[in-house]
From TrEMBL, chains A, B:
It comes from Pallidibacillus thermolactis. Residues 24-255 form the Phosphagen kinase C-terminal domain. It is an enzyme of class 2 (transferase). It catalyses: L-arginyl-[protein] + ATP = N(omega)-phospho-L-arginyl-[protein] + ADP + H(+). The keyword Cytoplasm does not apply. Keywords: Allosteric enzyme, ATP-binding, Kinase, Nucleotide-binding, Transferase. Belongs to the ATP:guanido phosphotransferase family. GO terms for molecular function: protein arginine kinase activity. This is Protein-arginine kinase. InterPro entries: Arg_Kinase, ATP-guanido_PTrfase, ATP-guanido_PTrfase_cat, Gln_synth/guanido_kin_cat_dom. NCBIfam families: PRK01059.1-4, PRK01059.1-5. Catalyzes the specific phosphorylation of arginine residues in a large number of proteins. Is part of the bacterial stress response system. Protein arginine phosphorylation has a physiologically important role and is involved in the regulation of many critical cellular processes, such as protein homeostasis, motility, competence, and stringent and stress responses, by regulating gene expression and protein activity.
C-alpha cells in the first residue's frame, strides 16, 4: 500500500493540528459511561447477559438518526483481527480492555472516527467524542447528543440521588471523563513539569501519558483529565478542566519563550538535530521517535522550522505505534523489524512535506 | 566572504579524493630533513646564526628553476598573523614548531601547496611534498627534485658514513619521513585497529592521529610513517611503507565488507544519522564533526550515500579546525562560537553539493 493511501485511511480528522490552542493542545476528549437498567453490569455479568446487551444495542442502531452517526460502522471484537484491534487502541478509539478482555464487546464507530461507542467495556455503554485542539464543550455537546439519541431507545440505570450508575464508583454521577492531550516540551525542558503534576492532582485532575494510566509521557505529551464525576455538573467539570488547561497553556508558552531567550541556539540545535535524525535514521525506537517528533513540533511552533506541517507530531505519534506499523507492513513484525519500518515510515512521511 | 570563494582559496589540490586507493588513503607525504654545512643546527644555534641561514636560503630562491616552484611564496613566520600560521599548520603545510618556536623561521610554499620547504625548523631545511591518495613514489620523486635543486646552491651537512646529518639522530641517514594518511573506520568499528597498531609498530612504523605525534585519531584517520631513516635506502623505506599500507588497505576493505554483511542496516542507520547531524546541527564540536564526517565518507565509499562528493571528509576535516573557522569568520572566536561557526560551515558546504 502506498504511504499516501495508508495515511488517507489511517489519519482521523481529529489528528490534524487545527483546533483552538493547537500549538499546545492536541485533542479534547469526552467520555460518558452508561449502563442499562435490568442488566447485570459487565464486570459481573454472564456471557449470556453480555450477549443480550450487545443484541439490544445492535438492534437499536438502525433507529439512530443523528447525522454524525450516519453510516457508522459496527465492529464486534470477536470478528476483528488482533492487529486491527491494536490499531483501534492506538488511535484511542477503543480501550485495551475492550479489545482484549470484553465478552461480546463491540464498538460503533462514526465514519470520521469522531464518535466511538463501546459496548460491554467496563460499563455497558461508553460514548466517546474526540476533537482536535481545545474543544471540550464541542466534544461534550456531541457526546450529549449521542447520549440523548441512545436514551430514546435504551433504559439507562439512573438514580435520582447518585446519577448515572457505573461499574466502578469512581465514574458514578455524571459518568463523565473529560480529558485533554497536551504537548508540553517547554515545561519538561525547564524541569517545571515534575512540580506541576502534584498541584494539578491536588485540584482533582489526573495527569497521564499518551496511552492512559501508567503509560509514560512519550514525546512530552500529557493527558489531563477530571478525577471526580460526582457532586458537580457536567458543565462545571468541563469548565474546571478548561481553566486548569488554559493555565497550563500559559505556563507552557512562558517556558518556551524563556528557553528561546536564554538558550535559543542550543534549542535550535536540538530541534534541527532531531529533524535530521527523523529524516535520516534507518532504525528508530518508539521512545526516540517520540522525543524527536516532540522537538520538531516545538521547532515548528517556535518558527525555527518552516515548510513542515504541525500534523507531523499528531499523526506520527500514532502511526508509528506497533499496531499501525504492522498494519502498514501487512503482517506481524518483530520488534527490530518495527524499528526499521518506523524509521522508513517517518522518512517517507517527511518526504511528502513540500520543500522539506 | 562567500563559502565558495573561501573554499577556492582554502582547499589545496591534494585535499581532493582522487589519487590511487583514495577510498582509504587520503594523502601521501614525503619529508626530507637537511642541514647546512658550517652552520650550527637550529636546536643549538644563536639568533644570529639562524638569521644567516635564513638569508642564505632566501638569497638562493631566485636561482631555483624547478617548474613546480614557479611563483612559490616565501613566508617569514615573524611577519605572519597567528591565525594565518594556525591555518598553515592545520593544512599540514608547516609544523606547529615552526609556527611558534622557530627563530627566523620561514616557509617557501609552492602555488598549489604541494611543496613546502620549511627553514629553521628543527633542521635548517625540511622539504615536504603532499599528494592525494597513495602516491609515495610520486611525492618522493618531487621532493628529490627539489632536494637536487637546493643542493646545487647549498652545501649540505653530509657524512659518507651516516648520510645526511640532522638535529635529532632519529632523522639522520636519509632524513626521510614518508607518511600516509588513512581513513580506517572499518578497522576501528570491528575493534581490529587496537591490535593492529602494535604490529605496525613492530614493523618499524609509527601510527599517529591526523595532527601528528600525540594527536587523537579524529575521524578514524591515522597517519602511518617510517620510524627508521638509517640503514635503508630511500626506495626501500618507501617500498616497505607502501607494502604495509597496502596490507592495511586490504584489511580495511575486508572489515568494511564484513560489517556490511553482518550489520548492514545498523551501519546504514549510523551513516545516515551522521549525515542528518551534519546537515542540521547548529552547534558541533570538532570531535563529533570528525566522527560524523568519517561515517558519511564511509557511507559514500560503500555506496549508501550518493550525490555527495568524497572530498567532503578530506576538506572538512581540515576546514573545520579552529584556525580555519576563525579565518572564515574574519577574526578570533571563542570555543563556543567556533562550534556554532563549524556547524554553519558544514551545513553550507553540504548545500553546495548537488541534490544533497
Amino acid at each position: 500500500m502506498s504511504l499516501e493511501r495508508f495515511l488517507n485511511q489511517s489519519v482521523s480528522p481529529w489528528m490534524n493540528a487545527e483546533g483552538p490552542e493547537s500549538d499546545i493542545i492536541l485533542t479534547s476528549r469526552i467520555r460518558l459511561a452508561r449502563n442499562l437498567k435490568n442488566h447485570a453490569f459487565p464486570t459481573i455479568s454472564s456471557q449470556e447477559e453480555a450477549k443480550k446487551v450487545l443484541e439490544k444495542f445492535q438492534g437499536m442502531i438502525p433507529l439512530l438518526n443523528l447525522y454524525p452517526l450516519k453510516d457508522a460502522e459496527f465492529l464486534k471484537m470477536e470478528h476483528l483481527q488482533p492487529l486491527h484491534k491494536q490499531v483501534l487502541v492506538e488511535k484511542h478509539l477503543i480501550s485495551p480492555n475492550l479489545a482484549e478482555q470484553s465478552s461480546h464487546g463491540a464498538c460503533l464507530l462514526s465514519q470520521d472516527e469522531v464518535i466511538s461507542i463501546m459496548v460491554n467495556e467496563e460499563d455497558h455503554i461508553r460514548i466517546q467524542c474526540i476533537f482536535s485542539g481545545l474543544q471540550l464543550e464541542e466534544a461534550f455537546n456531541l457526546a450529549n447528543a449521542v447520549d440523548d439519541q441512545l436514551e430514546q431507545h435504551l433504559d439507562y440505570a439512573f438514580s435520582e440521588v447518585r446519577g448515572y450508575l457505573t461499574s466502578c464508583p469512581t465514574n458514578t454521577g455524571t459518568g463523565l471523563r473529560a480529558s485533554v492531550m497536551m504537548h508540553l516540551p517547554g515545561l519538561v525542558m525547564t524541569q517545571q513539569m515534575k512540580q506541576l503534576i502534584p498541584s494539578i492532582n491536588q485540584l482533582g485532575f489526573a495527569v497521564r501519558g499518551i496511552y492512559g494510566e501508567g503509560s509514560e509521557a512519550l514525546g512530552n505529551i500529557f493527558q489531563i483529565s477530571n478525577q471526580m464525576t460526582l457532586g458537580k455538573s457536567e458543565q462545571e467539570i468541563i469548565l474546571d478542566l478548561k481553566n486548569v488547561v488554559e493555565q497550563i497553556v500559559q505556563q507552557e508558552r512562558s517556558a518556551r519563550e524563556s528557553i528561546v531567550k536564554t538558550a535559543g541556539i542550543q534549542l535550535e540545535d536540538k530541534v534541527w538535530r532531531s529533524l535530521g535524525i527523523l529524516k535520516n535514521s534507518r532504525i528508530i525506537e518508539t521512545k526516540e521517535a517520540a522525543k524527536c517528533l516532540s522537538d520538531v513540533r516545538l521547532g515548528i511552533d517556535i518558527g525555527y522550522i518552516e515548510n513542515i506541517s504541525k500534523n507531523i507530531l499528531n499523526e506520527l505519534m500514532i502511526l508509528t505505534q506497533p499496531g499501525f506499523l504492522q498494519q502498514y507492513a501487512g503482517g506481524p513484525l518483530r520488534p527490530f523489524e518495527r524499528d526499521v519500518r518506523r524509521a522508513t515510515l517517518i522518512r517517507e512521511r517527511l518526504l511528502l512535506e513540500k520543500n522539506s
